[in-house]
Each structure stands twice: as C-alpha cells, then as structure tokens.
Write a structure and sequence with these properties.
Elements lengths: L8 H23 L1 H7 L8 H30 L1 H28 L4 E4 L2 E4 H30 L7 H27 L14 H19 L25 H33 L13 E2 L2 E2 L2 H20 L7 H22 L2 H5 L2 H4 L2 H9 L7 H8 L5 H16 L7 H17 L9
C-alpha cells in the first residue's frame, strides 16, 4: 500500500528550500578559504595554502565517512526523522563556525605551532564545523534525492521535480560567493578581513536553520513505498562486481575533485595573480561594485563558475535524446581544452568557463554507472555517493602543490588529469560486458 497521504506543494517547497541551503552552504564553506587564510592563517608561514584547503577536505571527508549513516537512519526511523537529525547536525556546524570566531577574537593567544607557523585554535574549531556541515549535506542529499523523485506532486514528472531542486541547489551555489564577500564581510577588502566578522552572520543563518527545522517538524512527510530496504531481501552478487559501476564511482571521485577544485581554489589563484601585479579586470574594472559593496574579482570568478553549472543544467535538460556517453565524452574533451588553455595563458576567465561542461557530468556518470543494475540500483546509488570524497582530496592536493611550487598556475594540471579520467570512462569504462548483464 502506498503510504504517501498528501500531494500538497508545502512539503515539496520545504524540501526544495532545504536543497537550496545545501548548495548555498556547501559553496559558502568553500568560499571561506580565502578570507580565513587572511583572518586565521596569517602566521602559518609556508603551510598557509595547505591549511586553507583543509576546510574543503574536512567538508567532503564527511561524505565518505557518513553517507551510509543516512541510509541506516532512513531504514530505522524514516525520512522525516532523518531529515530533522540532519538539520540538527547542520545547526551544530554553524554554531561551530560562530564559536571559531569567538575563540579567535577573545582568545587569540591560544595557538598551536605547526612547522614553525602559529595556527589559532579557532581554525581547528572551524574545521570541526566544516566536517559537521559536510555530514549534514550528505545526510540531507540521501534523504531529499529519493524522496523528491518519488513525491507525486500533481502535474509533474520525477525528472521535472529533480530538475527543479537541482536548479535551485545550483542557484544557491551561484549566489554564495557574493554572500560571503558582500554580506558576511560587508565588501571589506580581503586584506582587512577579521575573524570577528564571522559571528553575527552565522548566528543569523543558524536561526534560519532552526526555523526551517521547526517548520519541517510540523509537516506531514510520510514515507513512500518502495524507496526503503525491504526486510529479508538479499542480493546474490557483490555490488562491486559490476565493472561499469566500480569505474563509475572512480569517475565521480575525479569529477568531484575537479568540480570542487575549480570552485574553491580559483579565488586563491586570482588573489595570487592580483598580488603579483598580473591584474584581473571585469570590463576594464579591477574591482566590482554591486549595490555599493566592493565585492572583488575573486568572488565574481567563483560566481561565474557556479553560475555556469546552473545555466548548463537548465540548457542541457532539453537534450533528452543525446546519449549520456556521447555527452560526457564531448564535454570532457571541451573542458580539457579549456583548462589547458587557461594554464598556459594564466587566464582565469577561461578556467571558470569549464562550469558549463561540468554541469552535465554528474548526471551522465550516474546514469552510465547504474545502467542495467535493476534490483541492485538502490544499493549502487548509496555506493556512488562515496565518490564525492574526491571533492576533499584534490583541492587539498592542489594546495600542497601550490605551497611546494610557490604558485597555483601549474597545479591546475590536476584538474586536467581528472577530465582525462572521465573521458576514459565515457569512451571505455562505461561499456557493459556481456557477463555483467542482469
């Protein structure tokens, strides 16, 4: 019997708003790399880039360690209670952000020496907050993706509902860089950023999440038949015995690596070029003014990149007849050319244009990875989320190389390698052998 009792717009709207929050705070977390490098790590000496990129590392580490927790909670307590638990974890993460500011301001003498550099305790509290935020993002996606897909809102199809929430999610990632520079840091030039500017904005965001949690707790979010594990049903084969799925997890690992690396590290590269006198301008302007706020070119670059992902998802949603294998192959080839050109020319505007290509890669890889798995598909979807950990590894590796080489320019070869791995998957790795057919 179908346990869903309501098809009203309210629950769908709330879940869509929560998905917006996931995208928004994921990018906010990454965009704090540059400001925290100034506010917290000014005395970290040669490890500044490495420690800065650890912010994203801990966020995406939570996906690897805690994604499976979401599935367990759903099976044991249902969707609604899992959603509320995830929002509680998000609240805790935001409070850690605010606490890191308070500690840095009132106890700035509390520092830890690492390889000659002095790192304040507030930085480590922020890392904990980043880990909690990553945990909440992973849990929320485990809940929202299958629920929205199965929630039969009148006059909509499953793919339409997923496109709506993904577009809203991308909108959150697009506006987040300007929120960090224009609202949290109030347009203050990067070199003047201080830790005490963090506390009030994050307390206000926390209040917003608490209100969202209270509203969600009063909504009727019944479980939906067929989306939770059936007791006593066993699977004869190991999920890893499917070659195209295993290679798909590897491909998404590299995809998340390059997607996040460009999104969170392009502003650090921009700062390096500006400080070296290279000069970056937008229509001839070195600074970008919006509503009286000095937002800066680094934030604009990140916004254009994430905006490219949003635009690409909207545009490519109309190309339903295109093979995901062909689409993945074409976009990875174009992305490879763009990244190589950006490396040689040190042109960041070309670099951020790969967002248009990255917009379709997740859906293509996922579609190819779970093709033909039938009753194994739900378990494969959970395994697939492990690949998101690539978003933790590659940005940090890039930061380590930037410290070693003294520049970000050639570290973008990492992104180039990621594109080539995905190209291999499109051309060869995604093909299903006869013995794997169900």
């Amino acid at each position: 019997m179908n346990t869903q009792k309501s098809y009203s717009l309210g629950p769908f709207a709330v879940l869509t708003f929560i998905y917006f929050i996931v995208g928004f705070l994921t990018t906010v977390n990454g965009q704090f790399q540059a400001p925290l490098k100034v506010a917290f790590l000014s005395n970290a000496d040669s490890l500044r880039n490495t420690l800065t990129t650890l912010i994203s590392f801990f966020f995406f580490l939570a996906y690897l360690l805690n994604s499976s927790l979401g599935g367990k909670w759903i099976n044991s307590v249902g969707y609604k209670k899992t959603l509320l638990r995830a929002l509680a974890v998000m609240t805790a993460g935001l409070l850690m952000y605010a606490l890191s500011s308070w500690v840095a301001v009132h106890h700035n003498d509390l520092t830890l020496r690492i390889y000659g550099g002095m790192v304040p305790y507030g930085y480590f509290i922020f890392l904990l907050g980043s880990y909690l935020m990553g945990t909440s993002a992973a849990l929320l996606q485990v809940v929202i993706n299958p629920y929205v897909s199965a929630y039969e809102l009148p006059n909509t199809q499953s793919v339409q509902r997923m496109n709506i929430v993904c577009a809203i999610n991308s909108f959150g990632t697009t506006i987040a860089p300007f929120f960090v520079t224009g609202v949290i840091f109030a347009g203050v030039a990067l070199e003047n950023v201080t830790a005490n500017q963090l506390m009030i904005p994050f307390l206000l965001i926390t209040l917003c999440i608490v209100i969202t949690t209270l509203v969600t707790s009063r909504l009727d979010l019944p479980d939906i038949e067929g989306t939770r594990a059936e007791n006593g049903q066993g699977l004869k084969r190991s999920i890893w015995s499917f070659r195209h799925l295993t290679l798909g997890v590897i491909a998404i690992f590299f995809y998340c690596g390059t997607e996040v690396a460009v999104g969170v590290n392009v502003n650090l590269y921009a700062i390096e070029l500006i400080e070296s006198g290279h000069g970056l301008s937008f229509f001839g302007k070195e600074r970008l003014m919006l509503w009286g706020l000095d937002l800066g070119i680094p934030a604009l670059l990140a916004t254009l990149y994430w905006g490219g992902l949003m635009l690409g998802r909207l545009v490519f949603s109309f190309f339903n007849q295109v093979s995901p294998r062909i689409l993945l192959a074409v976009t990875t080839i174009i992305a490879t050319i763009l990244i190589l050109t950006a490396i040689i020319s040190a042109n960041l505007w070309i670099l951020v244009s790969v967002g248009l290509c990255h917009s379709v890669m997740w859906s293509c890889i996922f579609t190819l990875a779970v093709k033909g798995l039938k009753q194994y598909t739900s378990k494969a979807s959970g395994v697939f989320m492990m690949g998101v950990f690539g978003g933790a590894v590659f940005p940090v590796l890039q930061g380590v190389l930037a410290d070693m080489w003294g520049s970000w320019q050639w570290t973008w070869m990492i992104a180039l390698i990621c594109e080539l791995v995905m190209l291999y998957y499109a051309l060869l790795g995604s093909r299903i052998k006869d013995e794997e057919c169900m």
